[in-house]
Write a structure and sequence with these properties.
This protein is of the alpha+beta class. The protein contains 5 helices and 6 strands.
C-alpha cells in the first residue's frame, strides 16, 4: 500500500504519521509533499529563527472567493525527525522540478518553479522487518 499526503497544513505531524505507520504493512510506503524549508525561510515572510516551527497564513483565491489558509513551516531536521519518530525509514528526499510541458501552461510561474526550491517530496517506508497491525 502507498499512502500520499501534504503535511505542511498540520501543526503536529506526530499523530498523523503514527496512524499512517500503524496501518501500513512492512515495506509500505508513504509519499509526502511539503513546502521546502528554504523557500519558507528565505523567500516568503522570512522568520528570524530557521529552527523554529511557526505558522503563517495567506489568502488563497478559490472559486472567485478569498479563503484564508494556514500553513506550518519547520526546518528540515524537524521533518526527518518526525518521520523517524513515527517508525518510518527514509527512502528518498526529492526537490522536484516542473515538467518542461508546464512552461506553456504556466508561463508566469514556470521560471520561478524551475529556479527556486518550492517543495520537497519525501518517500518513507515501514522497515521490512517491522511488526504491527498493518492494513
Amino acid at each position: 500500500m502507498i499512502a500520499s499526503l501534504v503535511l505542511h497544513y498540520l501543526e503536529d505531524w506526530g499523530p498523523t504519521l503514527a496512524e499512517l505507520r500503524r496501518v501500513l504493512r512492512p515495506g509500505g510506503r508513504l509519499i509526502a509533499s511539503v513546502s521546502h524549508p528554504f523557500t519558507d525561510y528565505a523567500h516568503r515572510d522570512p522568520r528570524p529563527d530557521y529552527h523554529a516551527t511557526t505558522s503563517y497564513t495567506f489568502d488563497w483565491a478559490f472559486n472567485g472567493r478569498s479563503v484564508p489558509m494556514r500553513l506550518w513551516r519547520r526546518p528540515l531536521h524537524a521533518m526527518t525527525d518526525a518521520f523517524t519518530a513515527a517508525g518510518f525509514r527514509l527512502a528518498a528526499i526529492s526537490e522536484p522540478q516542473p515538467d518542461p510541458a508546464a512552461r506553456e501552461a504556466f508561463p508566469d510561474g514556470f521560471q520561478d518553479l524551475s529556479t527556486n526550491p518550492n517543495f520537497l517530496f519525501f518517500v518513507v517506508e515501514v522497515p521490512p522487518s517491522a511488526t504491527g497491525s498493518g492494513g
